[in-house]
Amino acid sequence: MQNILHITNGDGAGDLLTASTLPGDVLPWRDTMHQGPFPDIDDIDEVSRVRAKFLAGEALPVDAVQADMLARNNLLRLAADRDEVILWFEHDLLDQLQLVQILDWFSKPERRPGKLTLICIDDYPGIVPFRGLGQLSPPQIAGLVEQRVPVDAVMMDVSVRVWSAFRKEQPTDLFDILGSDMTALPFLAPALRRHLQEFPSSGSGLTRTEQQLLEIAAEGPVGPGHLFRENMAREDRLHMGDWQTFDRIARLMDTGCPLLRTVSGDAFLYPPVDNLLRDDFLAQQLELTPEGLAALSGDLEPGRIRRHEWLGGVELRSGQMLWTWSEREQCLRHLRF
Q: In which domain, by residue range, is 159 found?
């Protein structure tokens, strides 16, 4: 029997692969890579320690998250002994970032298995809208295995360049790569453009996600479940899960001048940070503040939106020069709000 390893994004697709008839072990890549810091170092364990601290946040024990990531890394190191490693990913930003990190790892010849193959899709017959592999059944996902293609040198080269640029302190290299030939990984360029839209807007100071959430809230008092669903509907390449969306909502209430608030005036509680019943969580009603309405209309001074966050290797901190994105001009601008 062949010694096969399947690597995929998270537990949704991973559980389906485990439940399918496909032989081999499954390694889920549990990292919301579109958020938080990625230091520009090559030691994957050191990178994982930084990531574990960020991913754990206030809700999870750092030691447990770190132990899971280090165990993942150990399985990755042993992949060179496998007959085949099959990579299972989809078209969105999160999956594409995970894919380039993994292909960068395998770019070293001594790390490669007997065969390295890739399945990467953006649709599936009969499933509309297609969001990801997690929508499939075990038989459906198993049927995709015949579509796998060998990972070639061009795919490796693109991934190495993107992975290096993603971790740089300045996003200019990543932007420049968009002007190069990336057809070997056809979903990568649109995913990276979506990444750049998460830099604050050069005009309003809002990221694309923040803009969308405020636009939805402007329709009237809304619950967090509605905000999540409607924000998801505005993404053609969904990459943000429910917990990440609820965290963004909470951050819009803590920006120096809150842009959202609860109708009740109480603090916004959300999982996994807070322990509350599902019905109590969903019953919360949210609305724009006057500052939120001003931000949407472009009348709020962007410098009033306080932020400290990371996108890959780029730190965004209020009071300093910020990298921003101009959607109209399709370019990065370095500004002080």
A: 4-196
Cα–Cα distance between 292 and 214 in angstroms, integer?
7
At which residue do the structure tokens 């649109």 appear? 190
Written as one letter, the residue type at 91 is H
Claim to verify: residue 136 and residue 191 sit in the same structural domain: yes
Which residue has 């968009």 as its token pair? 178
The C-alpha angle with vertex 86 and arms to 152 and 74, in degrees rounded to 5, equals: 105
What string of H, E and C letters represents the secondary structure of the chain? CCCEEEEEEHHHHHHHHHHCCCCCEEEEECCCCCCEECCCCCCHHHHHHHHHHHHHCCCCCHHHHHHHHHHHHHHHHHHHHCCEEEEEEECCHHHHHHHHHHHHHHCCHHHCCCEEEEEEECCECCECCCCCHHHCCHHHHHHHHHHCEECCHHHHHHHHHHHHHHCCCCCHHHHHHCCCCCCCCCCHHHHHHHHHCCCCECCCCCCHHHHHHHHHHCCCCECHHHHHHHHHHCCCCCCCCHHHHHHHHHHHCCCCCCCEEECCCCCCCCCCCCCCCHHHHHHCCEEECHHHHHHHHCCCCHHHCCCEEEEECEEEECCCCEEEEECCCCEEEEECC
Q: What is the pLDDT of residues 159-213, one digit of tens each?
A: 999 999 999 999 999 999 999 999 999 999 999 999 999 999 999 999 999 999 9
- Side chain identity at residue 51, one-letter code: R
Residues 188 and 215 in one domain: no
Q: In angstroms, rounded to a whole number, what is the distance separating the alpha carbons of residues 3 and 278? A: 42
Kindly state whether residues 160 and 34 are assigned to the same domain.
yes
Which tens digit of pLDDT belongs to each residue from 102-129?
999 999 999 999 999 999 999 999 999 9
Phi/psi of residue 60, nearest 5 degrees: -120, 150
* Mean pLDDT confidence for 270-295: 93
> In whole angstroms, what is the distance from residue 42 CA to residue 40 CA?
7
Q: Do both 185 and 243 map to the same domain?
A: no
Contacts of 152 (CB under 8 A, 6+ apart): 184
